[in-house]
Write a structure and sequence with these properties.
The protein is mainly α. The protein has helices spanning 2-17, 27-43, 51-64, 74-93, 103-110, 112-116, 139-150, 179-249; strands at residues 122-128, 154-156, 159-165. The chain has three domains: 2-116, no CATH class; 122-172, no CATH class; 176-250. It has eight helices and three strands, in the order ααααααβαββα. Helix 2 packs antiparallel against helix 3 (51-64), helix 3 (51-64) crosses helix 4 and helix 4 crosses helix 5 (103-110).
């Protein structure tokens, strides 16, 4: 009996000190935690909370608990949210409907529909200001115009800050009934034709150069043979002139 009582005391102490265990959190505290965390999670565009945010979440939970000891720390709140996310995944894998009271609130925060409807984030890019260059087709200029209309540029020395909105869903893009795709395909085909003509002209030029090289080698060989034959004829003539002179002396 004494051993069993000491075991219960140790079990109760462990339950009150473990921040991420189910028996440490009441249903009301868990609901307050989800609301406080969810508000900041959505405000940060469903990004990770910073330590300051977690401390604010813990303060919200502790104020809901009316000072009941022990107070929750930011680490305990973070561990509890991680536990709830794992619990949500388990419940989501089960056949609907879920009887877990926090399932639908978490589904609205971290479910597939919530992630797909995530608002586009604003990204600030610092780029060097350069004059635009024209390219084949109107698709490139159209893309540049869209980039300029989506962002706001502020002069800061030689740099411009351009705010570009990321598009996360295809329905946010207006293709004007495929007109943009057709323009892009036409530009690609035009570029392919130009590239093919350049390659064909390059091959033709290489063939012409090779032909000229062979003709030059042929001309050099003929000239060398002519010079050799001319030298041989001169030698023969000189020998013939020397023979009569030697016979007359004899």
């Amino acid at each position: 009996m004494e051993l069993r009582g000491s075991h219960n005391v140790r079990g109760t102490h462990a339950a009150t000190t473990g921040g991420g265990r189910e028996d440490c959190w009441s249903e009301g505290a868990t609901g307050t935690l989800i609301e406080a965390w969810g508000d900041r999670y959505v405000r940060l565009n469903r990004g990770h909370l910073r330590q300051k945010d977690w401390k604010e979440v813990a303060e919200s939970v502790n104020s809901r608990e009316n000072g009941v000891k022990p107070k929750k720390t930011d680490i305990q709140c973070k561990n509890r949210i991680d536990t709830l996310k794992k619990k949500y995944k388990i419940e989501k894998a089960k056949p609907p409907p879920s009887k877990w009271p926090f399932y639908y609130r978490l589904d609205s925060l971290i479910g597939n529909d919530a992630v797909s409807s995530k608002k586009p984030a604003n990204i600030t890019l610092r780029v060097k200001s350069k004059p635009r260059t024209s390219f084949v087709g109107r698709s490139v200029s159209t893309e540049n115009d869209n980039l300029s209309s989506d962002g706001e540029a502020d002069d800061d020395g030689d740099d411009d800050e351009i705010v570009v909105k990321k598009v996360h869903r295809m329905e946010d893009v207006d293709l004007s009934d495929g007109a943009a795709c057709r323009e892009l395909a036409r530009a690609i085909l035009k570029f392919g034709e130009i590239y093919e003509r350049i390659e064909s002209a390059k091959q033709k030029q290489m063939m012409e150069l090779e032909k000229e090289r062979l003709e030059f080698i042929k001309d050099v060989e003929c000239e060398r043979m002519n010079m050799f034959m001319g030298a041989q004829l001169e030698i023969q003539k000189s020998k013939r002139k020397q023979r009569p002179a030697s016979s007359a002396t004899a």
